[in-house]
Amino acid sequence: MVREEQYDLVIIGGGAAGLAAAVKAKTLGIERVALIDNPPYVGKLLGGILPQCIHPGFGIHYFKEELTGPEFAARLIDQVLDLDVEVLPETFVAELKCSNGVCEVMTISPRGIAKFTGKALIYAAGARERSIFEINVTGYRPAGVFTAGETQALMDLFGVMPGREIVIIGSGDVGLIMARRFALEGAKVKAVVELMPWPGGLTRNIVQCLEDFNIPLLLSHMVTKILGTARVEGVEVVKVDENLRPIPGTEKVIECDTVVVAAGIIPRIELLEDAGALIDPATRGPIVNDYLETTLPNVFAAGNALVINDLVDYAAEQGEWAAESASFVINGGVIPREGIKRVELGRNVRLAVPQFLTGQRDTYLYIRVRRPEEDVRLVIPEIDKEMKLRKVRPAEMIRLHLKKDEVSRAEGDKITVSVEVS
Questions:
Q1: Count of C-beta atoms within a 10 Å radius of residue 326
Q2: CATH 3.50.50.60 boundaries in the chain
């Protein structure tokens, strides 16, 4: 027997973006809001990845004070519970169908199989980590190989020490934070190995997590092989050239008992893709307009399921933005389908979100560059927009405010975002 429920708004994902969306939706007067969540580790605990992020650095923009991950989550959870959002924990979304602006969500939970129908849907399912299988590392698959998020959960939620001699593959922010966490717990971090000639994490994390603890960062290096059969015994590392090809004769072995993969995260968008949403190969998330609406009508995306964010504050901001858009369509508003402008990627721009602009609302552009540069200008020539930047790095997102009047006055069907040398 399939239970059926109808809501005004269905939100998939109970992390920062989903929680912020639920709070904003209720404050905007949306009556029936369902928040569906399937926490990975800890039963009914909401918050997505936040409960295991016990370090500070959250909330500076969103709450105007520095918080830890659990503190950030707790504030949003309290608001969700106070506003009487219907929370559906331990609920796995098996299928998403959208047609004619109506969304159907099939779920499985300890309470049985259920189908939820909503006038609008916000997809905030977060992201997943890249595994050892995705980064071309050969060798055996012994015990002692983890993703950075797994080690964070083991240590910060369950009090388990994964190893004592650590090599971290990749310099993403979670990996950098875990390098510090390992050092604080008495482990020896032998090296952080990064393929690119620049770090993959925020500058503050490079300084606070590596330099302050004298942890080596090997740029332009790659791990080619894991050594050991029953348990990790070491890794083979080689230097790479400007084309990211291994340089013969530069191989060396680093002995360790644990390998941590911190090679980045990818939007978790399988449900959206199966439902027919178009995906941007640059972001690996859905293509959206400035209402954060996907190519599926009345389906909105936010947080790391939309684009990988540096800060949880931006994910929460996008959750509120998506809720405002959902409220608009639930109350009879019509999002323009014609006369919209495409955002084109110019010099040294790797991605930009939203990918389309209606010019009907103020918006933010979230932008990442391809390579580091200094003393540059972010330029949109069609609207005479320019922002000077002292330096840009691929790991650090640029957030640009655009007014609707600026977008609507642009001629043609596109605007081009470029990073130019001053």
A1: 32
A2: 1-128+265-335, 131-263
Closest C-alpha to 107, from 116, 118, 99, 98: 116
Its CATH architecture, for the domain 1-128+265-335, is 3-Layer(bba) Sandwich (3.50)
The two three-digit tokens of residue 326, written as one number: 């959902």
Q: Name the band, by pLDDT with cuts 50, 70 and 90, for residue 369.
A: very high
Question: pLDDT at position 121, please?
Answer: 97
End-to-end CA distance of the chain: 65
- On the question of pLDDT at 297 being above 90, the answer is yes
Give the distance between the most distant pair of CA atoms in the chain: 66
Strands 102-109 and 112-123, how do they pair? Answer: antiparallel
d(CA 264, CA 268): 13
Task: Give the orientation angle of helix 148-156 with respect to helix 173-184, to 10 degrees.
Answer: 40
State how far the alpha carbon of 73 is from the alpha carbons of 162, 261, 273, in Å: 26, 25, 28
The dihedrals phi and psi of 254, each to the nearest 5 degrees, come to: -110, 120
pLDDT at 42: 56
